[in-house]
Amino acid sequence: MIAVPARPSATADDSGHGGVQILVAAGPIRFAADLGPVDGGLDIGPNPHDLVAAGLAACTTQTLRLYARRKGWAVGAVHVEVSWRREPAAAPADLFERTITLGGDLDEAQRARLMEIAEACPVHKMLVAGSRVVTTLAG
User: Fold this and answer.
1) What is the pLDDT of residues 53-107, one digit of tens each?
2) Which residues have a Cβ under 8 Å from the Cβ of 36 and sit 6 or more positions away?
3) 94: closest CA among 41, 48, 31, 26?
4) Could you tell me if 76 and 114 are in contact, meaning their C-beta atoms sit under 8 angstroms apart?
């Protein structure tokens, strides 16, 4: 049996005016998603791949923060950068590159452990394992 959430995790609405600017709702906020001008958009919001990269960056940062807090480590600031690109000759072709900057008073063993913990971020695990998508037509 598939669990059905009480509300969608995210929604996207197209006004029907012909552009590719989409109104996205995720959690408690609403914002525009778009494509760059080369792809027919106005570049007024993140593109879908940037949104996936943002999810990986946010999840990694939260995972590291929660682990360090549980261990009582003075991690200080955590900064995660994620970029995406497609390498058609590779398998899989989609590559997310993640760079982590850890502040605070951490020794090398703690820093190494936090890099291992980054691999346990739920979004990281979802991306490397692959996911199923089930699509239905409403109405």
Assistant:
1) 999 999 999 999 999 999 999 999 999 999 999 999 999 999 999 999 999 999 9
2) 43, 47
3) 48
4) no
> Crossing angle, helix 122-129 and helix 48-71, to 10 degrees?
130
Long-range contacts, stretch 84-91, CB < 8 angstroms, 24+ apart: 84/49, 84/50, 84/52, 84/53
Cα gap 104→136, rounded to integer Å: 47
For residues 56 and 51, what is the distance between their CA atoms, to the nearest angstrom?
A: 9
Exposed/middle/buried for residue 58 (C-beta within 10 Å: 0-12, 13-18, 19+): middle
Q: Are 117 and 64 in contact (CB under 8 A)?
A: yes
pLDDT at position 15 is: 85
Those residues whose C-beta lies under 8 Å from the C-beta of residue 101, and which sit 6 or more positions away, are: 77, 78, 79, 80, 81
